């Protein structure tokens, strides 16, 4: 628990002063509120003529003697206004501190996730990360707000009220002290019973968010297969699970109120009964106090303050009960260490684009029974064009992920430019390895802004040149605003093929030594695909190019083709060689070319008529 608090406290930072000021003003508010009943008791005794010099409840100021009613009124008004001011300032600083703390916490979580390796990200699901950055942070923020205000106010109010009851009511104060231990034990028991339920319910929150994310992300599929009713039922089940657990937990926490009521009315009855007895019997109540009936009402006020303090404690316990699990989940992210680290003396220069896989074995989890990649031994010369082909699940993407060190190998080594990738500075290595992922991602903004993700300093001329190489300039010129055309989030206002070509252009702007295309021309027609490969061969011959593809036409012009099967290299060779000796490649080729002759080389291409196509016209069916 202490370690968790220490981790969270780092996010307070510049809001330490508002937190301290909030606590100080709360203290001032409590002191004034506890003195008010004492002054009121003195005023009541003044009005009833009980102003004997030895009266312990009589208020006097040094050198001023007893006060008149006007002076009492002035003191009461002044104390009330001062208490109001302290409360308002405490609320302001508390709001500033808690909202600032939540802002820093979200920022720390976001920055931490940005530093994670893919292995770290695989450990936490996307819905879970969303829940931790929203609901969990909100719970912790609310708890922090209660801690710097209510959690300070409650014990101070209780301490000052107990002291004042001893001063004004003598031994009657033991009534209030006596109820604190059993009431505290009951509240702790309630918290102990509710805690496991809240721990369980936040995991179900993740399932709820996952249901929403999948539905929104796959809305086209849901509507295409008319599965709206199924998705509604799926969401309803997840929401019902959350509701049941929260209902059960709230039922347990609901015992706080009746328990407090029982203790409150019990204390009130005991105070009235014993107080009336001592007043009528005119018997001292201890500590030299002679009880007067005008003081009983103020003792009840102090009793209410003590019990309200305990009530606030119960609210704090309930809030902390919910937020402890949230805090634990947040600290899991903040305490997580990236599995990828720069070496002590990293290499910042990549000599060339050569790549060597030296008997590489790889698996995503250390406790996995089977390797994803098995005994990969492959050597690629700088500037060479390598095609990789294989069935779904043959680990093609896993293979290229090791080049830019998105994951570390389990056994063996991967070398780039003659050096182990683990010896490079991560930023330097990834700046020289450009990857166009299988899933293309464009961000909201103009085409220029999206392209400059590859190189923020790229000039307009460089943007156009990269787009021409990627065969994207042609369709960009058809847009009214050309390169200033706004791209919606996820690139929803461009077709799949156009999106892929923009992502290829973005990667080319990095001017990398190694370019990896992970099935990134699948939505492009074969004619445009061939033009892209031709541009690569003519304009970036020194760049090592690795093309992962499902179509044999996308890789048949490569210097060598690697055939993957079940995480192993089944064969390596040219297109012609593999057709003669490799049954897997031969079967894929014949299946794809059945019923007609496909374009097998760039020399067989015929000039296309009217290459300008409308948005979406370049996609394969």
What this model shows, in words?
The structure is a single chain. The protein has 621 residues and is of the alpha/beta class. The protein has 3 domains: 2-335, ABC transporter transmembrane region fold (Up-down Bundle); 353-432 and 514-534 and 544-598, Rossmann fold (3-Layer(aba) Sandwich); 439-511, P-loop containing nucleotide triphosphate hydrolases (Rossmann fold, 3-Layer(aba) Sandwich), CATH 3.40.50.300. Helix content is 57%, strand content 10%. It has 20 helices and 14 strands. It has helices spanning 2-9, 16-47, 69-115, 118-123, 126-148, 150-169, 173-217, 219-224, 228-253, 256-281, 293-335, 396-401, 426-431, 447-451, 460-469, 473-476, 496-508, 526-539, 575-581, 583-592; strands at 60-61, 65-66, 355-362, 373-380, 385-390, 411-416, 419-420, 433-436, 445-446, 486-487, 514-518, 544-549, 560-565, 568-573. The chain has a 6-stranded mixed beta sheet. Strands 4-3-6-7 form a 4-stranded antiparallel beta sheet, with no helix packed on it. It has a two-stranded antiparallel ribbon with strand order 1-2. The chain is elongated and about 115 Å long. The chain starts with a helix and ends in a 29-residue tail after the last helix.
């Amino acid at each position: 628990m202490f370690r968790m608090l220490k981790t969270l406290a780092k996010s307070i930072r510049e809001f330490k002063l508002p937190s301290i000021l909030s606590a100080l003003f709360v203290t001032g508010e409590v002191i004034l509120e506890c003195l008010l009943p004492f002054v009121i008791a003195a005023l009541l005794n003044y009005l009833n003529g009980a102003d004997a010099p030895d009266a312990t409840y009589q208020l006097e100021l040094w050198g001023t003697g007893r006060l008149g009613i006007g002076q009492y009124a002035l003191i009461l008004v002044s104390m009330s206004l001062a208490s109001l001011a302290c409360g308002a300032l405490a609320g302001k600083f508390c709001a500033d501190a808690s909202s600032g703390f939540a802002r820093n916490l979200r920022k720390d979580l976001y920055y931490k996730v940005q530093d994670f390796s893919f292995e770290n990200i695989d450990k936490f699901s996307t819905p879970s990360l969303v829940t931790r950055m929203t609901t969990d942070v909100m719970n912790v923020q609310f708890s922090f707000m209660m801690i710097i205000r209510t959690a300070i106010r409650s014990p101070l109010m209780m301490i000052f009220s107990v002291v004042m009851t001893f001063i004004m009511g003598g031994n009657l104060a033991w009534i209030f002290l006596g109820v604190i231990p059993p009431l505290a034990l009951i509240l702790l028991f309630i918290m102990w019973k509710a805690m496991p339920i809240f721990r369980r319910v936040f995991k179900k929150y993740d399932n709820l968010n996952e249901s929403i994310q999948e539905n929104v992300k796959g809305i086209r599929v849901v509507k295409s297969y008319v599965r709206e009713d199924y998705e509604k039922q799926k969401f309803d089940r997840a929401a019902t699970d959350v509701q049941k657990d929260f209902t059960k937990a709230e039922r347990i926490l609901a015992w706080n109120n009746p328990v407090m009521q029982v203790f409150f009315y019990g204390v009130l009855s005991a105070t009235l009964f014993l107080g009336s007895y001592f007043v009528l019997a005119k018997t001292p109540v201890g500590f030299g106090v002679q009880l007067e009936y005008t003081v009983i009402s103020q003792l009840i006020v102090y009793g209410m303050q003590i019990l309200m303090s305990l009530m606030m404690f119960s609210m704090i316990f309930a809030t902390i009960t919910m937020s402890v699990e949230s805090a634990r989940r947040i600290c899991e992210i903040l305490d997580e260490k990236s599995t990828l680290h720069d070496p002590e003396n990293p290499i910042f220069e990549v000599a060339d684009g050569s790549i060597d896989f030296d008997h590489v074995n790889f698996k995503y989890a250390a406790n996995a029974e089977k390797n994803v990649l098995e005994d990969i031994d492959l050597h690629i010369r700088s500037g060479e064009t390598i095609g990789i082909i294989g069935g779904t699940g043959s680990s093609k993407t896993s293979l290229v992920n090791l080049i830019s060190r998105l994951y570390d190998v389990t056994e063996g080594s991967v070398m780039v430019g003659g050096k182990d990738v683990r010896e490079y500075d991560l930023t330097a290595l990834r700046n020289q390895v450009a990857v166009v992922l299988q899933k293309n991602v464009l961000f909201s903004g103009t085409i220029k802004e999206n392209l400059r993700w590859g190189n923020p300093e790229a000039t307009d001329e460089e943007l156009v040149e990269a787009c021409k190489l990627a065969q994207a300039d042609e369709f960009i010129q058809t847009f009214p605003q050309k390169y200033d055309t706004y791209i919606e989030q996820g690139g929803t206002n461009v077709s799949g093929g156009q999106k892929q070509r923009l992502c290829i252009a973005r990667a080319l702007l990095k001017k990398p030594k190694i370019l990896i295309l992970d099935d990134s021309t699948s939505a492009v027609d074969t004619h445009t695909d061939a033009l892209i490969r031709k541009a690569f061969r003519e304009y970036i011959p020194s760049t090592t190019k690795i093309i992962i593809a499902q179509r044999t036409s996308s890789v048949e012009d490569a210097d060598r083709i690697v055939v993957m099967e079940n995480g192993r290299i089944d064969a390596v060779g040219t297109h012609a060689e593999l057709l003669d000796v490799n049954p897997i490649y031969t079967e894929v080729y014949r299946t794809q070319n059945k019923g007609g002759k496909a374009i097998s080389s760039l020399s067989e291409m015929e000039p296309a008529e009217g290459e300008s196509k409308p948005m979406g016209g370049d996609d394969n069916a």
